[in-house]
Queue: 2 jobs
Job 1
Amino acid sequence: MDLSGSIEAAAPAQLRPTRVRYCIIALIFIITSLNYADRSTFSIAGASASAELGLDAVQTGFILSAFAWAYSLAQIPGGALLDRFGTRPIYIAAIGTWSFFTVLQGFAGFILGATVVTQLFLLRFLVGLCEAPSFPGNARIVAAWFPARERGTASAIFNSAQYFSLVAFAPLMGWVVHEWGWRAVFFVMGGLGLMAMGAFAAFIREPVRHKWANRAEIDLIREGGGLVEPVSRTEAREPTFTWNNIRQLLTSRMMIGVYLGQYCINVLTYFFVTWFPIYLVKDRGFNILEAGFVAALPALCGFVGGVAGGVMSDMLLARTGSITTARKAPLLAGMLLASLIMVAARVESQVGVVLLMSLAFFGKGVASLGWAVMSDVAPRKLAGLAGGVFNTFGNAAGIVTPIVVGILVAQAGSFDTALIFVGAHCLLTIVAYFVVVQKLERLELAA
């Protein structure tokens, strides 16, 4: 009796899938948290740095905006680099270079040949340039490592790092500035980034090339629609970045409304990432150590709000079957709550201000369904290009917000008008989705 065939047939059934993909997303979550922390280093160090270097509010605003100039402009080119050379080498280079330029910011004022404002603007610009491939890279890693039924949760995990980052790193950076001065925060965060680069290089691979992933896990991912094999560089691809495709994206009323809405939501995001700790110190009387810890509370509320908004949207979709209702209802509730940031201009109590800011950031989290909307409406053949344009518009708020807030603070001598500016964009988001967008449905391209 030949038992070999029976043994071979039974072996695959006894092989349990490994769970390497969970370790992958955990590492991506940590790296993305560092990514966001490096964006906000000057926000934490800004009050001390401005005093030492003699920077006024307008100069500080331009420095804070530098990251977003590069990050916005490099979104589509960053995605193209990932497509051309693969996720792993581009992502490794991105982490290493943005961490290096973070470290260099600690030497601002000592670099010859340029003013300190120019030095800091250029270095933060380079950090933004190098971070551009990170989110498209995260999306590609999730597409490779997760079957379709797990992909939404995995995407939510790495996206939630923007909130966790402030919870974890704002107190750390505030403590570092308090103990060792503002320059030390750049050395510490840049050093952590270089360590993260080493961890990424050692652990991240395509599923079929990862020595820890067994055949059962790879088959599970593949059968669920995961892209477990790397794309051949010589494989012919139909070009998506054409002027005709761009024209169709930019002339669709629905897409214009979605892009405008994301820009307005990100005005609130970039206020928290850039000016909020400085606001706590200059307008509300917190010291830098207290500001680092206080800034973590709204971020934690944003994290909770982000989860709540996703759950609410999924429940509404299951109950109504309407994408429009499921996406717009949480957005309306969240943005109305976020607009309470304007009330903070009339509140004297430190506790009252922190509570209002926490409610505002919770509302912003509830309303942060932009990437879910894009998955619903982006043309099937242009998902990457539509997402790149979407992220470009959204991060343009990082250019405008720090500069405008700096000008408003310089003119008024306080943050009162700046808070009204930010809150008004919450209301404009509602206009974008309920007046401009109207019905949400997948955009069909003309031939």
Job 2
Amino acid sequence: MSAQPDVAQEFDHAESNILRQPAPVWAVAFACVVAFMGLGLVDPILPAISAQLHATKAQTELLFTSYMLVTGCMMVFTGFISTRIGPKYTLLSGLAIIIVFSFLAGRSHSVGQIVGFRGGWGLGNAMFIATALSVIVSVARGTAASAIILYEAALGLGISVGPLLGGTLGEHSWRYPFYGVATLMAIGFVAVLLFLRGVPKPAHRASITAPFRALGHLSLLTLGLTSLFYNFGFFTLLGYGPYPLHMSAIGIGYTYFGWGILLAVTSVFVAPWLAEKFGILPVMYTILALFALDLLVMGLFVHSRLTLVICIILAGAFLGVNNTIITTAVMQAAPVERPTASAAYSFVRFVGGAVAPWLAGKLSDAVGPAMPFFIGCLGVVVAIMVLWIGRNRLRHIRYVAH
């Protein structure tokens, strides 16, 4: 396994390079935007699905759980697949799978069917997003930092547009958002097929066990576990948050659109500045603490719609900063190749965080509407503790301009 260059040194001119990219980068970035729409797309229509298909909150939250569980499990196989059929065909296969299963989700007649098709969607999502970052890094102009920022911008834009699209289409029928994603993914498929050229062939074939061996590096394991517990807060906010709002689909869509816009802006512009000025670990401690406080306030004022809307939107700023910084940290955490590090990290955070939405639904029904936010807050506090315990393993990770 080859050691990676010092990613910290690559951020010198990252922001100036981000827009000067060739067509293949924009093709993959567009497909990334659409892929990440799938994460927040179902937010505004969760109450409608629950009501019209006579499902409990916990049953409906399985739409998130199946999606993330399959995504996380499949992450460890993506390197094995992409080094055999090539990055381009891995991306196209992932997009094709998403198109099929998102369309089938729209044709469903029960929550169980949607949950199953969302799992299939997660399979395609894993093949796509695990490969997309390494492809963008390979073909982008400028530094790896430019590619990471562009990837995070696509993530933020997709997450922000997803709820808005879901809310707008969901006003007419909960089925339409699924059809909308299938249509947009088909456009992304064509864009990747036509414009993605010049991706270097893998130098060697990756082993299925490589991501698991990578987790033997305690630095990478620390970041994975930090993200696992952080995701208890993240996916509680994303998956359970629409219920206590008691708003229409379009109202929920606009709320999470504001959340996603802040996430996108802070991931591109604020995160690099904070990390360069204060360092990666101090910023992560602070941001995670602020996010935990945000969730605590949501739990304490769960019956105040205005408070919930403000806290949801504000959380976008915290998540945007943390996502960019922790992705940068993962890329230099261990002496393994970037796709392997990404797969190992994503496996831990997605599989572990998959239980959060389902647990939130259960706690809401059994205890009360505030309890999921308190548990999400506790999860983020545990993430801070994990990061603190493993801090000595992360001292080599730096984020400096010069």
